[in-house]
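Please fill in the sequence for the structure shown.

STRUCTURE ENCODING:
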C-alpha cells in the first residue's frame, strides 16, 4: 500500500489521490488501507518515516564521523545528501507539496525538518573541534547547512539551473565550507 501511495501521490498529488485509488492500485479494500495504514495521512507519515529514518541516514552520520578533517566530513555529508535525494527525492516533494494544503502533512514536514536538524547537530558537533570557523556555533552551522542543502535549493541548482548533480553539489558544498569552516 505504501508503494501504491508513493506512486499515486507522486503522480496526482496528495490532495487529489483517494484512499479508493490507493486501495485499487494495491489490490486491497479501502477498509484495509484505513485499518492497516491509517488512510492517506498514515501512508504519508509512513513515507516521511521512510525518508527520514532510513538506514542511509545512519550510514551518512557514520561516514561523516569517520572522515577527517572537517572538510572531509562536509564532503561526506554532501555526498550523503545526494544519496538521500536519489533515494527519497520524490517523497520529499510529495510531503512538501502536501504540507501546503494539509495540516497533517505540514506537521509531518516539521517532524522531517526536526529529524534532519537533529542528525546535522550530531555531525556538526563532531566537526566543532575539527575545524568550525571561529565564532560559528554548532547551531549556526546546522542552520547554514540546512538552508543550503534543503531539497528545494539542491533541485533548483541541479535541475532548474541545469547544473547537474555534480556541479550543484560542489557549489553548495563550497558555499557551506566558506561559511562555517576555518579557512
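FILLED IN BY: designer on duty
SEQUENCE:
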Amino acid at each position: 500500500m505504501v508503494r501504491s501511495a508513493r506512486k499515486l501521490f507522486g503522480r496526482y498529488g496528495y490532495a487529489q489521490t483517494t484512499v479508493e485509488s490507493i486501495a485499487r492500485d494495491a489490490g486491497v479494500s479501502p477498509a484495509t488501507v484505513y485499518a492497516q495504514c491509517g488512510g492517506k495521512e498514515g501512508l504519508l507519515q509512513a513515507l516521511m518515516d521512510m525518508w527520514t529514518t532510513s538506514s542511509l541516514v545512519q550510514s551518512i552520520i557514520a561516514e561523516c564521523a569517520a572522515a577527517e578533517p572537517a572538510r572531509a566530513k562536509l564532503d561526506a555529508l554532501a555526498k550523503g545528501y545526494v544519496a538521500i535525494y536519489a533515494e527519497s527525492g520524490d517523497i520529499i516533494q510529495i510531503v512538501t507539496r502536501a504540507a501546503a494544503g494539509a495540516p497533517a502533512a505540514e506537521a509531518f514536514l516539521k517532524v522531517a525538518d526536526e529529524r534532519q536538524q537533529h542528525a546535522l547537530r550530531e555531525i556538526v558537533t563532531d566537526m566543532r573541534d575539527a575545524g568550525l570557523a571561529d565564532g560559528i556555533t554548532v547551531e549556526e552551522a546546522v542552520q547554514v547547512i540546512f538552508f543550503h542543502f534543503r531539497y528545494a535549493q539542491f533541485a533548483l541548482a541541479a535541475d532548474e539551473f541545469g547544473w547537474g548533480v555534480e556541479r550543484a553539489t560542489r557549489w553548495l558544498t563550497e558555499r557551506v565550507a566558506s561559511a562555517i569552516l576555518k579557512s
